[in-house]
Amino acid sequence: MFAEYWNPYIERMPIEDLHKLQEERLRSLVRYVHDHSRFYRQRFQEAGVEPDDIKKLSDVTKLPFTSKRDLRNTYPTGMFCIPENWVVRYHVSSGTTGKPTVVGYTQGDVDMWTESLARALTSIGLGRGDVIQVSYGYGLFTGGLGLHYGAERIGATVLPTGAGNTERQIELMQDLGSTAIACTPSYFLYINEVAQKMGVSIRNDTKLRAGILGAEPWSEETRKRIEDSTGIKAYDIFGTSEMSGPLFTECHLQNGIHIWADLFLIEVIDPKTGMRVEDGERGELVVTSLDKWAFPLIRYKTGDITILNNEQCECGRTHPRIMRILGRTDDMIIVRGINVFPSQVESVLMRIPEIGDNYQIIVDRKGPLDVMTVKVEVTESTFSDKIADLMSLSREVGRQLKNVLNITAEVELVEPGAIPRSEGKAQRVIDMRRV
Ligand SMILES: [Zn+2]
Which domains does the chain have, with CATH numbers? Predict the structure, then answer.
């Protein structure tokens, strides 16, 4: 029998007590960053705010926002609040544009990260007796080591395969009896594809029952596909390297990601105005860390688009939930003035049974006009059907995309395997206008 909660006292804490705890932690955090970081002192001064101005939880809105740009401008460690010889670990995220960003941890920060994941993994029913295959990259990327420590903390067995070498992953999954796997959803789909080619059925020939999938936006429809085709339960995981790494998952009810309120204070804002949106409305996630000391975050704009849900979950946890990440502010493509998130395209495609698991969105400019092409693989069985069927399928895909996106997309159906696979994050968007 697995524990229902890792930390029942905190996880089920009455909401008023949680708010009181957040308030106390916010006050000491603001004092701490003011006293220990020149960067924050200057920011507070510019915003005309003193640590003593922060008394209530709602005073958080008096604090200035921070963003990835600040991290780049203070590269490598200008936002840290401790001397470098107190840092026990660095992680570095590869910047696709500009400088990479460096995150540092004290031992306490690593422990907070591990605690957060221990609660999360327990909430999806994992514990002693489970074999968790960690197929996120190990090294500078936070995914591998983050999950690794969390899984060990709950007494599970870790199989640290890292990303890649897919056939061997599948052999080890069988030989050592992996019951859960942590990787990107696109990589899990690829593992399933390779397994089928090897004559291995994930459902019948392995003990796998849970996937801890994230590090890229994915849709509810993809979850359904993964669960239907492999028999596992697929759980969404969230966290960013600036926040520590992967930190939070859905609970076993699979209805939103629990954000531990004693560790992070979250807001959802309109990225243009900086004002908070109503609960239930889409906006950018902003986080303030409440128990992180080497590199604390004050109102950090994550760039992730989500929806906040403050209703209490039926699992008994009182902490707020965010809905699945819909995309990133910088992933959003603007086609002919209309905002398009790759996850919207994905949710349309994954509802159509003749369509395979892989797609790419290519945006280009022809003369003055943006042209969006959705290149998508069909399934093996569709591919072997007649050409005429493919043409009506292509029209149907175009029609459904137009319904959801409100713009016309060119649809290009390609044979199974035609779109390059990735062992980490999939490249879903190619924007030729930026080349
Ligand atoms: Zn729950």
Answer: 1-328 (3.40.50.12780), 333-434 (3.30.300.30)
In sequence order, what are the residues at sequence separation of 6 or more whose Cβ sits closer than 8 angstroms to the Cβ of residue 83? none
95: closest CA among 121, 72, 79?
72
How far apart are the CA of 160 and the centre of ligand 1, in A? 28
Distance CA 7, CA 293 (A): 22
Distance (Å, rounded) from C-alpha 227 to C-alpha 233? 6
Q: Which of 15-29, 317-331, 409-423 has the highest mean pLDDT?
A: 15-29
pLDDT band at 94 (very low <50, low <70, confident <90, very high): confident
Residue 328 pLDDT exceeds 80: yes
The model's confidence at residue 339, banded by pLDDT at 50, 70 and 90, is: confident
Mean pLDDT of 334-347: 88
Cis, bond preceding 160 (omega within 30 deg of 0): no
Query: 132 CA to middle of ligand 1, Å?
Result: 21
Query: Given its phi and psi angles, is residue 203 left (phi above 0), alpha (psi -120 to 50 degrees) or beta?
Result: alpha
pLDDT, tens digit (0-9, with 9 covering 90-100), for 399-423 = 999 999 999 999 999 999 999 998 8
Cα-to-centroid distance, 5 and ligand 1 (Å): 11
Question: 260 C-alpha vs ligand 1 centroid, how far in Å?
Answer: 11
State the distance from the centre of ligand 1 to the C-alpha of 86, rounded, in angstroms: 36
Residue 331's pLDDT band, with cuts at 50, 70 and 90, is: confident
How far is the C-alpha of 415 from the C-alpha of 379, rounded, in Å? 8
Rounded Cα–Cα distance for residues 282 and 269 (Å)? 8
Distance CA 247, CA 11 (A): 14
Amino acid 387: pLDDT: 66
Tokens of 74: 């203070």
